[in-house]
Every structure is written in structure tokens, then in C-alpha cells.
Amino acid sequence: MEIAKLTISQIHKGLKKKDFSALELCKTYLDKIKEKNKEIFAFLVTNGDLALSRAKEIDNMISAGEELPTLAGIPCAIKDNILVEDIPCTAGSRILENYIAPYDATVIRKLKNQNAIILGKTNLDEFAMGSSTENSAFGPTRNPNDLTRVPGGSSGGSAAAVAGGLSVFALGSDTGGSIRQPSSFCGTIGLKPTYGAVSRYGLIAFASSLDQIGPIAKTVEDCQIVFNAIKGKDELDSTSVESKISNFKFQISNLRIGVPKEYFIQGIDPEVEKVIKQAIKKYEELGVKIEEVSLPHTEYALPCYYIIAPSEASANLARYDGIKYGYSETRNPKSKIKSLLDVYLESRGEGFGAEVRRRIMLGTYALSAGYYEAYYLKAQKVRTLIKNDFERVFKKVDAVFTPVSPFLPFKIGEKIKDPLSMYLVDIYTVSVNLVGAPALSLPVGKIGNLPVGLQIIGRPFEEDKILEIGKLYGNN
Amino acid sequence: MISKEEVKHIAKLARLGLTEKEIAKYQKELSSILDYIEKLKEVDVSGVGPTSHSVLVENVMRGDESQKPKAKTIYPPTALPPRQAPRQKLLELAPETKDGYLKVKSIL
Fold first, then answer.
1. What is this model's ipTM?
2. What is the pTM of this model?
3. Whole domain around residue B18: which residue ranges?
4. Into how many domains does chain B fold?
5. Do A299 and B39 lie within an 8 Å CB cutoff?
6. Spatial CA neighbour of A455 closest among A267, A179, A214, A269
7. pLDDT digits (tens, 9 = 90+) for A379-420
8. pLDDT, tens digit, for every residue of A255-290?
9. Nearest chain B CA: its distance from A15 CA (Å)
10. Is B13 a member of any domain?
């Protein structure tokens, strides 16, 4: 038995039956990280000693016959924009290079409460802004399926850690596709939950009306276990909601799935389209009713997103001021700064990378006097129309199938010089964040050794239904 | 195409210190992104209200009660224990402090 290939419930059973110890399991993963992280660069920092001592404690729990939560002893990886108390949290940025998280995010408290083992923090595009993990200030992550290609982004480190066998599962965050697109590129399962389903307390904010934390795993079942462990209302996040819908049961023959015609137009790689169409056909053969639907405002989702997300980011990132925490020009002995304004200008100019500055500029422009109505308010109104499109379609169908990305994983360096071409990578994923719906990225095929993901979009708070739909694919 | 002056103005509003070279670079890049975003002008939004949050958000009020920790509260094993305010840890992250306060440069 190769313990590095086991799923969460297999590990849980194995630990209880004492087929292997939590320590053995933890060592296996730490050894793999040691061996492979140099080439993949999924982890920015590992937490080896602490992880091993936690594993020993869990073995003691097992010996003492204590009850074992499902995630007890399960090694996991955390995107480095989620705070884990007393270990660094950089958000992939120089501005937070020396920042040590002063408290745990709510999702981390929940994982720790179940005695999950945190192996380390994973690489990301700076402040989760990007689609390739090339925007990390600490260097790019590589796709474990092909080391010359990107793992997607921004949760590229988390997806690569799971795909490369360096972690059982990982947490990511998704503002415009940052869990689903790297999952598609790496061949993992990624769930972007409904907006509000998971607490954002302790997640470094990018765009607060779009951000959600979610799991990345090897199987749909693992994804579901982790989602159930981290979800729920939190009094420290006033936008979090307790979902009343759970344990969804349905009959395959009653399932109706919509395929929006606007997602299969020019621009999609024909090979990707073929794999997605074959997957949809397979569902049809299983007895699922497939019908064409229309989401007429699809083409406006990306420009709408690239006003709303940078606008919110420009406000959220105002907190990096060189005074409270993070990089400060006042600590630079050669600095000539005199006034408070200089502290702001120099700390932020030095600390932020190119893409983050670009988005702060874009958002500041869209919110500035004279442009607010033409850009920000207009985008919010278009957001209403996009939301109405989905509400209309969800009256007819249970879920929607689309590709996650129009492209296969691209080469490192291929798109980084042209910001707009990088933005177009998110064209199929941003709508979901604008409307707040949950969506799953499910690997449904490969072209050569490069995976292709099917996006399954559900009604708000129907995560269980899209997860069950995902399981159908593998069960047959 | 937005002007160099506009780029400088935005950079100042955003509190970003940029070099002349960076200003020229952002002038080009922001212009091409804004051209793409112009696409939204095609959409008729007459009579449509704005959406700021996808899920209906309501104001959440804390109960008007004293915050003293209750003695000997027993928490069920599934609930998370209360958090401790990490005041000292937060202060340690600041570049300059004095007597437990953050220190800033003069404003005038």
C-alpha cells in the first residue's frame, strides 16, 4: 500500500486500524516535499517540526483510544494568503515578506480543531492577482504535469502541491477563478463555494464581494469532506451565512443540466472544446438531461470583473501603508523620507509588484471623481444583468456545464508580458464570482499529459448537488 | 489613451511612488485595458439597479451587553474556544512604536 496515494477517508480508516501511524504519514509527505519542492516550488515555507510533533500527538490520541475526527492526522497545505498563527504569511508579496500571522483564520481554527496537520504555506500570485502564479514575488510555481508550464493561478501552489503528491488536500481562495483554473491546469478537484458559505476572516482581502476560500483535493469526496469542515456562519465575518441546504439527494434521471451556447464561441482551443463536449456526452449517456441555455451577458463578465475587482482591491490594499505592518521605508537606513506622505509613496512603491500596482491604479482610476459613474456604477449594473441571466437559467436547470479555461496550461513566460492576454484566461470563471454561485472544477480528460477541467456551476448553496454530479462522472 | 498627467494623478491618489519609466509603462498598459473595458458601453442598463454583493447582506449588530468573559463557561467540544486579542503580537509587527502606540512621521 502506497500511503501517499490514499484519500482522506482511506487515511482515516488506516489510522484507526493502525495500518500506519500519523507520524509515518507525515514523514512520507515531508520527504516528498523535500524531494520535489525544488522543481515544483509549490511551498513557500514548510512547517516540518511542528507538523511532526502534531502527528505524534495524534498517534497518542489513537493509542489512548480517543475519538478521531475525520481530518485528524491528514496532512494539508494552505495558500499563503490565509493566516496561520505564528508562521509567516506573505500573500506572495515583498510587502509582507517578514509578516508573521498574529492569529488563525477561522478556516484554520476549524482545521486545527479537527487535528488536521498543516505542512506549510503555498505559493500564489501576489495578493492572489494573476492566473499563472508567475506574479509571486518569490518565483513561479511549475505544473507537476509539465515543468515547463504554469500551474494556473492564483492558487497555483495549492493545486500543484496536491497534483504533485506533496499534500493530501489544500486550501485556496477564488476571486475570479483562482481555485478552479489551477485545478483545471493541474488535474485536481477544486471547489469555489457560494459567496458567504465559508468565513473569510483571516483571508488577506483582495476583492471582498468576490473572495471565497475553498478546497483543492484529489477526489470529489475529499473536496466535500474539507468543505463540510470549513463552512458555516462566523460571527467574525458578517457576510458569512449558515446554509440550510445539505445532504442533497436526487435521481439522475431528474437532473437537468444547461450548456450555455455563449461559452463555445471563437477563442476556445478546439482540443479543449472536444474534451468538454465528450464529458457532457458521457453525462447524457448516464441519463442526465442536457439542454442548451443562453447567458446573453457572458461577453461582458470579464470587463465588468476588471472594474469591480481592481476597484475593491484599490480600497483593500490601502491598508499597506508602511505604518501598521509590512514593508516600511522607515526601516530603510538609506531612506531620505521626511513626511508621512513619503512613507506611503515609498513603502507602497517599493513593496508592491507590477501587477498589484497595475490593479491598484486601475481601481483608483475607476473610482476617481468623474469616472465613478461611467466605470464602477456601470459595472455594478452590468453585474445585476449577469446575475439575472443565471437566475433565469437556474429556474430551468439544476446546474450549468462549461469549460473552466479556454486554454491548456501555457508555457511559463508566454503571457506574462501582456497583462490583457493574461486577463482573458479568466473568461469562463469570473461570472461565477460576480453572481456568487458555487462551482466545481472536475478533471474530465487530458490532451497529451495536460489535464482539462469541466466547470460545474450550481445554484447558490447547492454545493452538495454539484459535488454529487461530480461524483457521477467517476463512478461510471 | 490616457495622458501622462492622468497617470501621475492616479498614482498620487493611490499613494504609489512611481518612476518616470514606470509612468510611461502604465500609461500604455492602462490605456489598452481601459480600451477593452469600453465594451461595457454597449450594454443598455436603463432601469437596472446596481449589485454590490451577490448574496443579500444585512447589517449585523452585536448585542448590547457587557463583554466581560463569563467565568467557567463550558464549551461543547464542537464549538471553537474564544479568541484572545493578540494586541502584543499586532504591535510587534509595526515598524515604529512608542509606549504601546504606532509612531508616524510628522504630517505638516
1. 0.89
2. 0.95
3. 4-42
4. 1
5. yes
6. A179
7. 999 999 999 999 999 999 999 999 999 999 999 999 998 888
8. 999 999 999 987 899 999 999 999 999 999 999 999
9. 21
10. yes
